[in-house]
From TrEMBL, chain A:
Pfam families: Glyoxalase. Residues 123-146 are annotated as: Disordered. Residues 151-268 form the VOC domain. The lineage of its organism: Bacteria, Pseudomonadati, Pseudomonadota, Alphaproteobacteria, Rhodobacterales. InterPro entries: Glyas_Bleomycin-R_OHBP_Dase, Glyas_Fos-R_dOase_dom, VOC_core. This is Glyoxalase.
């Protein structure tokens, strides 16, 4: 199954103004009313929680109503429809998108991807012993640089039955396990995406079921730090980070959000192919991150302490 | 007693974070309803380091009837801090003793 990754996340919220402000400040662009896009057009979509067009909510606190997965082509859509129709209802909407429910009880959809192929510069660094990443006189620290999320990277669910949920994506949709935290959940990537993970899950009691976080890829660590710092400066609540994960290697910075889920910036995630052998370790603070920092107020070295000069 | 803020600094029906730590994170959430001020430690029972709000002084759901944890969407009753839905179901926010005196809100004891 040539599935690429999450294309759209659709939320039903009761505080749409706050959510609009958050997603704009986070760096997404409102391309259509309440459709907030990354540079490659992957998107978070806001709807009023009472919008009758929305799929029904889970009986928990999560505001996520549906995850739309992007696939390469119509043939893949047809194959998914044929496979999933064997044991569940699959509906097709006016736009040709499929809608159904996964084995964890989450509403999911599939569409020929809305994403465009990006051709953008990477973060360029100068590293002794290697060819310079930047030309002479090209400055690396630009406070005015735009910091725009490039693509919807991954989603993480709280799930009551990790194995049942994971096996659905593995056995029915062809996802591959890249790494695993024992008794927590597997990191999964679909066949048409070499990112370390687009989907991860954490085993929880039923009343917690929902979206734990969503993440967008940034250009690199510097852009992630710039974007996160700007969020802090605007008064947003940092939850975890900045830091760097071990599995996946991605830099991370998580924020609370009015969407009732954590929203992450990530950067520089590992790529994998079929030659990779999965690693498995117990979940722990040590396993979750290589290092962790906390944003503090700026400071500069100076002369004597105040009042002594 | 520690002065937290002037009563008028909390909008009626609204919320305000006070008692910032060295990192600038507010330690206590104040909520004003009628003549009363409710105060809770700014931490979801879910984790030991989980601030509730998503932005400075932003702690409430859409219609202002519940405290929202902006980590995973849990909703807490304002009058007693009890979680009604979400990852902390059945748990409660930690209340902070405060008193209103001379038009200001004071901390009665260290949170």
């Amino acid at each position: 199954m040539r599935i690429i990754g999450p294309d759209e996340l659709i939320f039903g919220v009761d505080n749409i103004e706050a959510c609009r402000a958050f997603l704009s400040d986070y760096g997404l662009s409102e391309s259509a009313p309440d459709c907030f896009e990354a540079l490659d057009r992957t998107a978070v979509i806001l709807r009023d929680r009472n919008d009758p067009a929305l799929p029904p909510p889970l009986p928990t606190a999560t505001r996520l109503r549906e995850t739309i997965w992007g696939v390469e082509d119509q043939a893949t859509l047809d194959a998914i429809a044929a496979e999933l129709s064997k044991d569940r209802e699959v509906t097709v909407d006016a736009d040709g998108r499929l809608h159904t429910v996964d084995d964890g009880g989450f509403r999911i959809g599939f569409q020929v991807t809305r994403r465009i192929v990006l051709d953008l510069p990477p973060e360029r660094i100068n590293s002794p012993g290697a060819a310079p990443g930047r030309a002479p006189n090209e400055i690396g620290a630009n406070e005015d640089a735009p910091a725009r999320p490039r693509t919807l990277s991954h989603i993480v669910f709280f799930v009551p039955d990790m194995d049942r949920m994971a096996n659905f994506y593995i056995d029915r949709l062809g996802f591959v396990v890249t790494d695993k935290f024992t008794n927590t959940g597997p990191f999964l990537r679909p066949q048409a995406n070499d990112d370390h993970h687009v989907l991860f899950m954490i085993q929880t009691p039923e009343y917690m079921q929902g979206l734990e976080h969503l993440a967008f890829h940034m250009q690199g660590p510097t852009e992630l730090m710039l974007a996160g710092s700007r969020m802090v400066k605007k008064g947003y609540e940092s939850f975890w980070g900045p830091g760097r994960h071990k599995f996946g290697s991605n830099w991370f910075w998580y924020f609370n959000s009015p969407l009732g889920t954590h929203v992450e910036y990530d950067a520089d995630m590992d790529k994998h192919d079929g030659d990779w052998t999965l690693r498995e370790v117990p979940m722990s603070k040590e396993a979750a991150q290589m290092f962790l920092f906390e944003n503090v107020a700026k400071w500069a070295p100076g002369g004597p302490p105040p009042g002594k000069g | 007693m520690t002065l937290l803020c002037r009563l008028e600094d909390i909008p009626e029906g609204g919320a305000r974070g006070v008692l910032p730590n060295a990192r600038g994170r507010d330690g206590v959430v104040l909520l004003r309803r009628g003549g009363r001020v409710y105060a809770y430690v700014n931490n979801c029972p879910h984790y030991d380091r989980a601030p509730l709000g998503w932005r400075k002084d932003a702690f409430l759901n859409g219609d202002g009837t519940r405290i929202l944890c902006a980590a995973h969407g849990a909703l807490f009753r304002i009058e007693d801090g009890v979680c009604e839905i979400g990852p902390c179901l059945g748990q409660a926010l930690t209340p902070v003793p405060v008193r209103i005196e001379g038009g200001a809100v004071w901390l009665d004891a260290p949170p």
